[in-house]
C-alpha cells in the first residue's frame, strides 16, 4: 500500500501540472505517517492532506517547493486533492473530519501552540481508525521529526 499511495499522489501531480511535476523530489523521503492509523480506503486522501500540511509547516516527503509562494500554492493544491480523494472513498463526513483537522491545525499554528499531532490522531480515529498504542507512538514520533515539534 505504501508505494501505491506515493504513486497515486505523484501521478496526480504529474497529470495536473508541469509545475507540480517539477516539484516532485527525485528521491522521495516517503514514509506513511497517519494513514496506518486509519482505514485503508482513506489512506491516499489522508496522506495527500498530510503532505500538504508538511509543505506548509514542515519537511515534506514527496515534494519540494523552491520558495514560499510556491509552497503555499502547492500545499493548497494538495489539500484540495486530498479532500477530493477522501470524498470519493469516505464521503461528506470524512471531508468534514479533514476540513476540521486542517482548520484546527492552522489555528494551532497561528497561535504558536502545539498539539497538532493529537489533532491528526483524532482525525484518524474519526475516520474509523482504531490504532494501538504502539502505532500511535510511532506516528507521533514520525510527525515530530517532520514538523520539528
List the helices and strands and how they pair.
Layout (H helix, E strand, L loop, with lengths): L1 H15 L1 H5 L20 H15 L10 H43 L5 H11 L6 H15 L2
Helix pairs in contact: 1-3, 3-4, 4-5
Helix content: 55-70%
**Number of helical regions:** 6
- The separation of the N and C termini measures 27 Å
Radius of gyration: 14 Å
Order of helices and strands: HHHHHH
Q: What structural class do helix, strand and pairing data support?
A: mainly alpha
Indicate the mean pLDDT: 94
Shape: globular
Verbal overview:
The chain has 6 helices and no strands. With 149 residues, it is mostly helical. The chain has helices at residues 2-16, 18-22, 43-57, 68-110, 116-126, 133-147.
Key structural traits:
70% helix; 0% strand; globular; mainly alpha
Describe the structure concisely for a colleague:
With 149 residues, the protein is an all-alpha fold. Helices cover 70% and strands 0% of the residues.
